[in-house]
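Bit of a strange request maybe. I'm writing a small parser for structure token strings and I need a real example to test against, not something I typed by hand. Could someone generate the tokens for this chain?
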Amino acid sequence: MPIHDRPQTSLVQRLLSLADAPDAAARLAAEDPESVVAATIGEVSGRAGLYPGPGSPMIVQFEVDVPGSARIPYLLTVGPDGQQARPGRVDDPWVCLRYDLPALIRDVFGPSDPRAGADREVVMKDEPGPAEYKPDDPWMVRRDEATRAAYQVLQACGPYRGDLTALAVRFGSDKWGGHWYTPHYERHLGRYRDQRMTVLEIGIGGYHDPGAGGTSLRMWKHYFHRSMVYGLDVYDKSLLDEPRITTIRGDQADSAFLTDLAARYGPFDIVVDDGSHVSSHVITAFNALFPHVGPGGMYVIEDLHTSYWPEWGGNGVDLADPATSVGFLKTLVDGLHHRDRLHEGPYEPSYTDRSVTGIHLYHNLAFIEKGRNTEQANATWRPRHDPMRDLPAPYRSMGK
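Reply from user aminoacidic:
Good idea to test on real output. This should exercise your parser:
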């Protein structure tokens, strides 16, 4: 079922879907324009904090023209104390930004486009005449602040193009600093940035404090600017919900719960397991959720060091123990090569044999690619047994 046809689809999800759709105009016309403008300005407000702005609060007048309807005005206040958006109008604003609604939707919710901004108008308050010009005049100081405010808001009308590490640092995610994961994430997930996707992260952080955590969810939200981001945790984290971020309470060790979660919110394009790190939980979550990762998607497992710690269900002695996270990953490596292995009798490939197409390992971090693992075996005519096996004993020893 297309995402815009699902009963639980939010307005923001529909806007993400129609932003670059061929029938965008018809679908946009079916939406309430006031709600659409509110959701879109809210997204702009949420992005504005990613960019430098004025040193004191500054109001930017936002005017959105709705085809066949009236102009909808909004006031976006930016500055060092955060951003705030509300309907309204001020007389003689320092900065006025005008957009047609379809162009605004395309720029904010669509993929990166070199034509972005072509349909908008920016008006700044006129400078004083030459006789009145004084560099340290309060009017000119305020004008400089308005210029910074205009920059901040205009940047927020498009996708964030900085690197993932900068977002991790800004929001306090331990994916940089506590660990050094972000360069690996960018290497493998950077190609997805402009896609409409569904991202699930297991483990929100902050433990029992309902208002703590969510740093990585915010990082993913801005990096994947066209995606819906879901966070799963054993604690209630609903206070962290915001547009394009939804938290879910549940246990990653509960396979039935995970299957229901996937049916409700999936399929997923990216799943990140940063949850309990207990080996049995990691394996349960993978087995339950990997079937609900779409083709071309990625399943990521973090903090694999616990695979060697007995108190976390690990095993530091038998390094091939399949009940540990790393031992389980080693079985996926064997499954990746199931067509080349020797089997005693008929062999029926497992689901992961058939659908894991790549495994990338780094220190404490694994990326598992989803696809169709049907690549033919290497030279099927070649004997799979030891080529020295049929030689007389003296020759076998010479060949070793």
